[in-house]
């Protein structure tokens, strides 16, 4: 009796909670594609609760922002380099970052960008979504405004994003300067609001050390003559917009081998931290780094997080610790990372991993931020009255960046030339039956060149690779040309031999040849009858 096939039970669809557990672990690029699978998936991915759950799974990575500037007489635009999970730098430029932008802050995958325009731009680098906010009225076109006077943060208690502007006081033209008013804008509101500080705070410290967002508050340094640091931390709670002064731990920096410390404020493991860097007096090189983390905000207690001997390297700013790694620079052209092996240790130069070569750019034009790729949406805030679209030309089309774009086109021409030579060599090698190994990829379509999307680091690498490739073609080209000449000579010999054999064959078919009879010359051509 034939066996009947058993009917397999099929699940009509997975429960939604199982789908969410799977989707929440996918990267943003995959989730954006998953939205078109079905309405259910699109609804899950668009849900704000799913967005926050995805953020909790995301691992922060470094974002290096190089602001526009001039080095060795050459102008460079603003660009960002992002690092992935393997600590490899990105190769593509970020479309929402224009060449004249300055970065103010990074929070939950959103960045705050400042420019000479009358707006502040909030952008999601992963999704490409952006929105422009009108600057405070007084500083829409002011020459006294600066990108370091702005910051951006998130309050988990109210689920709100806020932009802060430190309003310079009347004495801003003096050395340092101070401020007594913080202008605050909540995404989705209609206008900026002024919040007065309890006392005048140092604008110089804000400009030099920056502002960080941690546990729902903004933190920055200000002057405090009573502290051994000569500094104190200001906490600005984003929920109730109240300020609080936090004293730093008592530390003695009087070491004759080291100079006065430089201070940095940063975030480590979602907690505000303060670093003191001391240079060696004999060499002037960076030598010692101490990092304290705020352990209890109410009691204002601090713990020593790290004590590191830097071995002539310098920390990045404002962020330099990412998980179990510390990022540093050599001061010239290299950015490195080192494992945080313990609470107290010395940087081992043999274990440094080079992340990036930023030459010929200047390290003073670089900032480091904590960044995660996220799904945070901005379309919910675009109906606010303060949101606008500036009527300006696209940044890359401005005349001052024509030379930069021309250089990019030169890289394209070099690519096309190299690929054209490679194709001719392959054709010639095929004709001769010779195998050669040349694997330069095909150049991009001239109408839609990806070189505009390459960041400056990758563009330089591609240019160097192409130059090296063209220089390396000389030797194989000479060998192929010599082989071609030899092949042509051999072919000519074979042709002559074939013609000779053909003639001999024709003669053998006609029989033996008879001796030729000499003819008597005609009298008409006798030389004796010639006349002049």
UniProtKB/TrEMBL annotation:
The organism's lineage is: Eukaryota, Viridiplantae, Streptophyta, Embryophyta, Tracheophyta
Listed SMART domains: FBOX
Q: Which PANTHER family match?
A: BNACNNG10540D PROTEIN (PTHR31672), F-BOX PROTEIN CPR30-LIKE (PTHR31672:SF13)
Q: What is this protein called?
A: F-box domain-containing protein
Q: Which residues form the F-box domain?
A: 8-55
SUPFAM superfamilies reported in the protein's UniProt record:
DPP6 N-terminal domain-like (SSF82171), F-box domain (SSF81383)
Q: Which PROSITE patterns match?
A: FBOX
Q: What Pfam family is a match, any one?
A: F-box-like
Q: Which InterPro entries match?
A: F-box-assoc_dom_typ3, F-box-assoc_interact_dom, F-box-like_dom_sf, F-box_dom, SCF_F-box_component
Residues of the region (Disordered) are 489-532
């Amino acid at each position: 009796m034939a066996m009947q096939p058993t009917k397999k039970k099929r699940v009509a669809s997975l429960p939604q909670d199982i789908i969410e557990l799977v989707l929440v672990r996918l990267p943003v690029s995959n989730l954006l594609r998953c939205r078109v699978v079905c309405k259910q998936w699109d609804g899950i991915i668009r849900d704000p609760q799913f967005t926050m759950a995805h953020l909790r799974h995301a691992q922060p990575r470094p974002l290096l922002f190089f602001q526009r500037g001039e080095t060795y007489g050459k102008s460079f635009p603003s660009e960002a380099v992002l690092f992935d999970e393997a600590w490899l730098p990105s190769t593509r430029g970020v479309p929402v970052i224009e060449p004249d932008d300055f970065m103010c802050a990074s929070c939950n995958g959103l960045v705050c960008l400042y420019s000479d325009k009358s707006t502040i731009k909030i952008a999601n680098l992963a999704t490409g979504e952006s929105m422009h906010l009108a600057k405070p009225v007084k500083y829409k076109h002011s020459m006294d405004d600066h990108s370091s006077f702005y910051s951006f943060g998130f309050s988990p208690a109210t689920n709100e994003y806020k932009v802060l502007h430190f309003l310079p006081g009347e004495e801003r033209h003096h050395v340092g300067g101070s401020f007594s008013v913080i202008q605050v804008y909540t995404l989705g509101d209609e206008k900026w609001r002024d919040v007065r500080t309890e006392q005048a705070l140092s604008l110089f410290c804000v400009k030099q050390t920056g502002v960080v967002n941690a546990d729902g508050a903004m933190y920055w340094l200000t002057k405090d003559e009573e502290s051994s640091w000569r500094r104190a931390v200001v906490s600005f709670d984003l929920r109730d917009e109240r300020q609080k002064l936090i004293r730093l731990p008592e530390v003695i920096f009087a070491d004759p081998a080291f100079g006065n410390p430089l201070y940095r404020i940063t975030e480590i493991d979602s907690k505000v931290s303060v670093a003191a860097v001391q240079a060696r007096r004999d060499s002037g090189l960076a030598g010692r780094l101490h990092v304290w983390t705020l352990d209890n905000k109410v009691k204002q207690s601090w713990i020593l997080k790290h004590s590191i001997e830097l071995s002539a390297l310098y920390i990045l700013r404002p962020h330099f610790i990412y998980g179990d790694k510390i990022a540093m620079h050599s001061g010239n052209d290299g950015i490195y990372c080192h494992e945080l092996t313990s609470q107290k240790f010395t940087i081992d130069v043999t274990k440094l991993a080079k992340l990036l070569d930023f030459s010929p750019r200047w390290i003073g034009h670089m900032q480091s931020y904590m960044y995660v790729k996220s799904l945070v949406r901005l379309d919910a805030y675009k109906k606010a009255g303060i949101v606008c679209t500036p009527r300006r030309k696209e940044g890359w089309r401005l005349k001052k960046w024509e030379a930069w774009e021309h250089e990019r086109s030169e890289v394209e021409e070099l690519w096309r030339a190299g690929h054209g030579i490679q194709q001719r060599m392959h054709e010639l090698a095929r004709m001769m039956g010779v195998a050669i190994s040349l694997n330069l990829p095909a150049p991009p379509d001239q109408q839609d060149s990806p070189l505009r999307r390459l960041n400056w680091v990758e563009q330089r690498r591609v240019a160097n690779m192409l130059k090296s490739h063209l220089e390396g073609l000389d030797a194989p080209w000479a060998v192929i040309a010599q082989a071609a000449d030899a092949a042509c000579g051999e072919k000519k010999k074979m042709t002559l031999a074939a013609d000779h054999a053909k003639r001999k064959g024709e003669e053998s078919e006609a029989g033996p040849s008879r001796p030729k009879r000499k003819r008597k010359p005609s009298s008409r051509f006798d030389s004796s009858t010639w006349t002049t």
